[in-house]
């Protein structure tokens, strides 16, 4: 999972980043709100962890920008020393998905993250992913369009499954790269363009099959499910 953390206390940020990385997450840490806003304007994430008290802007201002200005529905968890009931109610009413009061405890943080993600992403079936006419056998790593098997490389299969599980969501190239290849500095983002092109061709991602894989200029890709007019 790709996490953006906004925390101006560097010791706190270092500790939480270490916990998240040990749990297998990719962490992008920011200590200034405008730095996060700049990156979030061109990159996508699975979760935002945001402190409330920040220089120049509050966590509430950042949440407002994400929800109202960007229309971003990515889960947001506030991590803050503010523990008054009215603060918690205000944060949740403004669109936050959860609220953790400092000092942060590792197991509680990880449990709350998992709980939030379960709410927004129901668990997919373990053995098969169905999006007619597409079918993915997750055990044997085989793909079918209708009854016709399609030969995909391991990375093509992983990318296709990730996109179909998140149909309708816009992902940056960097996000897709981390989701499929991990944080590997030796893999160029151009790799995503190559694999997307192959998937379009191999899976016949065309309107007649109900799906379209579309680019967003200078950003990334979205797999769109088309409805009949």
Descriptive report:
With 229 residues, the protein is α/β, with parallel strands linked by helices. The chain folds into two domains: 2-120, Rossmann fold (3-Layer(aba) Sandwich); 128-225, Orthogonal Bundle (Arc Repressor Mutant, subunit A). Helix content is 39%, strand content 23%. The chain has eight helices and twelve strands. The relative contact order is 0.10. The mean pLDDT is 90.
Task: Draw up the topology in text.
Layout: E1 2-6, H1 10-22, E2 26-30, H2 33-40, E3 47-50, H3 59-69, E4 76-80, H4 85-93, E5 98-101, H5 106-120, E6 128-131, E7 134-137, E8 142-145, E9 148-150, H6 154-165, E10 170-172, H7 173-181, H8 190-202, E11 211-216, E12 220-225
Parallel strand pairs: 1-2, 1-3, 3-4, 4-5
Antiparallel strand pairs: 6-7, 7-8, 8-9, 10-12, 11-12
């Amino acid at each position: 999972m790709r996490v953006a953390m906004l925390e101006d206390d560097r010791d706190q940020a270092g500790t939480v980043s270490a916990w998240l990385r040990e749990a297998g997450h990719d962490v992008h840490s920011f200590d200034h709100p405008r730095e996060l806003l700049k990156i979030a304007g061109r990159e996508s994430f699975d979760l935002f962890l945001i402190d409330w008290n920040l220089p120049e802007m509050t966590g509430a201002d950042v949440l407002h920008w994400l929800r109202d200005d960007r229309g971003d529905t990515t889960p947001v968890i506030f991590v803050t020393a503010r523990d008054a009931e009215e603060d918690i109610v205000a944060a949740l009413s403004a669109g936050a998905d959860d609220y953790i009061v400092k000092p942060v405890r590792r197991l509680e943080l990880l449990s709350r993250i998992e709980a939030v993600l379960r709410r927004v992403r129901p668990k997919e079936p373990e053995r098969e992913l169905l999006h007619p006419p597409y079918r993915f056998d997750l055990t044997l790593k085989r793909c079918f369009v209708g009854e016709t098997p399609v030969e995909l490389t391991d990375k093509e299969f992983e990318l296709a499954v990730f996109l179909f599980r998140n149909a309708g969501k816009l992902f940056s190239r960097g996000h897709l790269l981390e989701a499929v290849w991990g944080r590997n500095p030796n893999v160029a983002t151009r790799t995503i363009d190559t694999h997307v092109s192959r998937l379009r061709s191999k899976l016949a991602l065309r309107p007649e099959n109900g799906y379209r894989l579309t680019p967003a200029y200078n950003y990334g890709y979205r797999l769109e499910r088309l409805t009949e007019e």
